[in-house]
């Protein structure tokens, strides 16, 4: 240990600080290829007091701090920077309170998302935000990235379930934002500001989140189409008919092929796209609205439904088997989803790049995954050119660069295209108010 890390270790209970280089390396990356900087050490926080002590030490010595949940991020947000300490919140896993009466839970940041959902279901409730990574990501990471997920089309993103936060600021002060009521408008919406701030404004050490009644009967439909456009048209039809789906997911041929090669799902050669839709009540109307489908499967039991949705949840791992992945995340108004998907196909063909696309189609949130050679340290030029064209097309269609993964390090070079100089200046001003020494996740997100 150096003098600096020894001072940190002295400020914390035994065993909280790790400096073994191999161990530190294992905390330095998220799920991107972004090369990490060299960290001084890792703090395994187990309480708010540990976080307070870490931030006081970091302020005193002006050491950058990179907050970290499970490291499943896809934007380089939790990637270590040179000379930093990685502050892992993964051991703060208590569900401090779960109130069925008020339909809220108070949780620590290291709680795995699906664990909170399971705890809520014991009371007939659910925690709605469900990123595909919900079995491996943490609530703290979900809050910091404002994660979306499969059920967002009906229940909204993480911000829509966040009522209040406990946050440790850069100088170690503790801030409580928001409330535990369903309504409340006192002061500025600081909870909303912290959600999605990617660890640049403060470290979330607890959250009061909203739970919802778990629906009793869910109908699930999986429909195969011989064209992506027909699948996208079915999305519009299902929404327009007022089916209020709680899930509306689209996968293209490349994605389905990767899943089939891995799990043998019996993919037909003519299938170009699959739509998976779920709603409360009957499946008949949604199935009928998939009129152009070549095949429609309707689940009659919860087990069958889980199997159909399980196909979608395999998508990311299936693509990782093809090579390294640049997982992108544009979001467009739902009405122009067919144009966005067609553009992605054209870009892939023009640059000879493999792009496998899945979409939270009900939200217009499209994930084109650019697959490239495993041997390369980072994506080759043609992948960046193709990605650049996809981002610009999304913005031209009235969309955004990132629907749910965040900016991190990966998207920073395109940020100005969307925000413009006035917003950029205000972002920097807000950052200075919360973190005048620029020690919280410096260089990320803004
Ligand atoms: C297979 C797979 C599927 C995925 N599917 C989805 C999806 O459907 N929807 C979606 O939105 N994302 C998805 N993701 C991306 C990722 O899971 C989410 O971004 C998730 O919210 C990250 O959580 P984490 O705990 O891993 O956070 P990390 O990756 O550890 O950190 C993410 C960011 O949050 C910050 N942070 C973490 N904890 C805190 C804290 N307590 N206080 C302050 N800042 C903090 C970090 O500094 C970093 O900037 C997927 C990833 C994978 C690998």
UniProtKB/TrEMBL annotation:
<dbReference type="InterPro" id="IPR006094">
    <property type="entry name" value="Oxid_FAD_bind_N"/>
</dbReference>
<keyword id="KW-0274">FAD</keyword>
<dbReference type="InterPro" id="IPR016171">
    <property type="entry name" value="Vanillyl_alc_oxidase_C-sub2"/>
</dbReference>
<dbReference type="InterPro" id="IPR051914">
    <property type="entry name" value="FAD-linked_OxidoTrans_Type4"/>
</dbReference>
<dbReference type="Pfam" id="PF02913">
    <property type="entry name" value="FAD-oxidase_C"/>
</dbReference>
<protein>
    <submittedName>
        <fullName>FAD-linked oxidase</fullName>
    </submittedName>
</protein>
<dbReference type="InterPro" id="IPR016169">
    <property type="entry name" value="FAD-bd_PCMH_sub2"/>
</dbReference>
<keyword id="KW-0560">Oxidoreductase</keyword>
<dbReference type="InterPro" id="IPR016164">
    <property type="entry name" value="FAD-linked_Oxase-like_C"/>
</dbReference>
<dbReference type="InterPro" id="IPR004113">
    <property type="entry name" value="FAD-bd_oxidored_4_C"/>
</dbReference>
<feature type="domain" description="FAD-binding PCMH-type">
    <location>
        <begin position="35"/>
        <end position="214"/>
    </location>
</feature>
<dbReference type="InterPro" id="IPR036318">
    <property type="entry name" value="FAD-bd_PCMH-like_sf"/>
</dbReference>
<keyword id="KW-0285">Flavoprotein</keyword>
<dbReference type="Pfam" id="PF01565">
    <property type="entry name" value="FAD_binding_4"/>
</dbReference>
<dbReference type="InterPro" id="IPR016166">
    <property type="entry name" value="FAD-bd_PCMH"/>
</dbReference>
């Amino acid at each position: 240990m150096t003098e600096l890390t020894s001072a940190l270790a002295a400020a914390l209970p035994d065993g909280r600080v790790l400096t073994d280089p191999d161990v530190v390396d294992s905390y330095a990356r998220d799920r991107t290829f972004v090369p990490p900087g060299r960290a001084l050490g890792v703090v395994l926080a187990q309480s708010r007091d540990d976080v307070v002590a870490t931030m006081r030490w970091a302020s005193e010595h002006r050491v950058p701090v990179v907050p970290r949940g499970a490291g499943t991020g896809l934007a380089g947000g939790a990637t270590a920077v040179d000379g930093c300490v990685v502050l892992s919140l993964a051991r703060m896993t208590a569900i401090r309170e779960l109130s069925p009466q008020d339909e809220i839970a108070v949780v620590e940041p290291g709680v795995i998302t699906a664990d909170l959902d399971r705890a809520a279901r014991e009371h007939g409730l659910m925690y709605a935000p469900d990123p595909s990574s919900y079995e491996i990501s943490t609530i703290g990471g979900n809050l910091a990235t404002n994660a979306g997920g499969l059920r967002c089309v009906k229940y909204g993103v993480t911000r829509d379930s966040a009522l209040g936060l406990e946050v440790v600021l850069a100088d170690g002060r503790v801030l409580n934002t928001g409330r535990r009521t369903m309504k409340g408008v006192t002061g500025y919406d600081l909870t909303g500001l912290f959600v999605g701030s990617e660890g640049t404004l403060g470290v979330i050490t607890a959250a009061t989140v909203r739970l919802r009644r778990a629906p009793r009967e869910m109908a699930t439909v999986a429909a195969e189409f011989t064209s992506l456009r027909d699948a996208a048209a079915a999305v519009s039809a299902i929404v327009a008919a007022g089916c209020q789906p709680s899930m509306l997911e689209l996968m293209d041929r490349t994605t389905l092929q990767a899943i089939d090669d891995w799990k043998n799902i019996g993919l037909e050669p003519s299938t170009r796209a699959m739509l998976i839709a779920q709603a409360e009540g009957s499946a008949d109307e949604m199935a009928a609205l998939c009129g152009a489908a070549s095949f429609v499967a309707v689940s009659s039991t919860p087990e069958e439904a889980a199997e159909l949705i399980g196909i979608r949840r395999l998508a990311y791992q299936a693509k990782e088997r093809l090579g390294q992945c640049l997982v992108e995340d544009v979001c467009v108004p739902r009405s122009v989803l067919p144009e966005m998907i067609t553009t992605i196909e054209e870009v892939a063909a023009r640059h000879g790049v493999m792009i496998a696309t899945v979409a939270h189609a009900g939200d217009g949130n499209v994930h084109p995954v650019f697959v490239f050679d495993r041997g390369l340290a980072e994506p080759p030029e043609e992948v960046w050119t193709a990605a650049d064209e996809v981002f610009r097309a999304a913005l031209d269609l009235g969309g955004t660069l990132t629907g749910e993964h965040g900016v991190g390090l990966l998207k920073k070079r395109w940020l100005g295209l969307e925000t413009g100089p006035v917003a950029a200046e205000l972002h920097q001003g807000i950052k200075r108010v919360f973190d005048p020494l620029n020690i919280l996740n410096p260089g990320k997100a803004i």
